[in-house]
Amino acid sequence: MAMHRDEARAQEARDNISEAGVSERCTVICGNALEQDFSAATKVFLYLIPRGLRIILPILEALDRENLDVVTYMSPFPAPQLAIETYNVETAGHKDAKWPLFLYRLNDPAAAAAADAAAATAAAVPKDDDEAAADESYCAGLGLPSVCVLH
Ligand SMILES: C[S@@+](CC[C@H](N)C(=O)[O-])C[C@H]1O[C@@H](n2cnc3c(N)ncnc32)[C@H](O)[C@@H]1O
């Protein structure tokens, strides 16, 4: 499924798809991307300005679909969303270009678990004050002067 809100551009897409001989595998919709039902989407490719990406990200995240692969072209999703890979591509019209593609996997349970574990580890690391006190106590326990503590 491809989408554009401008009918002329949607028709251009249909023509390109037809020329490539894959019309039976593609549907081009002329409409507002923010009002479409993406629930059947298996992969998503987005060529939107940053504002459009910011608006559509929560819509895709709310699909309740694990491991939804999404590629954005030219602009990344806003932070803190992190691309798992980035690529540079040329296009038919710009042979020497290195236009960026960003690959995301939304609603990835493994990544969420890793983020939770990293947050738990960060929370368990003593803050500077706690660390200094622990060092003092360690030195005192060994009968060493506290000046042995490295700051
Ligand atoms: C960065 S341009 C990409 C242009 C074009 N798709 C192409 O491949 O050359 C983003 C396009 O998304 C269209 N657009 C913006 N908001 C949209 C929306 N809510 N639904 C559908 N298309 C939208 C704009 O009209 C604009 O042409």
Describe the fold and architecture.
The chain has helices spanning 7-19, 50-61, 109-124, 128-141; strands at residues 2-4, 28-30, 43-46, 68-73, 85-91, 94-106. With 151 residues, it is an alpha/beta fold. Among the domains are: 1-31, no CATH class; 41-107, Vaccinia Virus protein VP39 (Rossmann fold, 3-Layer(aba) Sandwich), CATH 3.40.50.150. A four-stranded mixed sheet has the order 3-4-6-5. The longest helix is centred in the C-terminal third of the chain and has 16 residues, at 109-124. The structure holds S-adenosylmethionine (SAM). The site of S-adenosylmethionine (SAM) has 12 residues, from β1.
Compute the average pLDDT: 87
- What is the molecular shape? elongated
Relative strand content: 15-25%
- Strand line-up of the largest beta sheet: 3-4-6-5
Please give the count of helices. Answer: 4
Q: First CA to last CA: what distance? A: 59 Å
Helix content: 25-40%
Order of helices and strands, N to C?
A: EHEEHEEEHH
What is the third-level CATH name, the topology of the domain at 41-107? Rossmann fold
| CATH architecture descriptor of the domain at 41-107 | 3-Layer(aba) Sandwich
Rg (CA only): 25 Å
The overall strand count is 6
Q: Which residues sit in consecutive blocks of at least 5 with pLDDT less than 50?
A: none
- CATH homologous superfamily (4th level) name of the domain at 41-107: Vaccinia Virus protein VP39
CATH class of the domain at 41-107: Alpha Beta
Specify the biggest β-sheet: 4 strands, mixed
Look at the helices and sheets and give the structural class.
Answer: alpha/beta
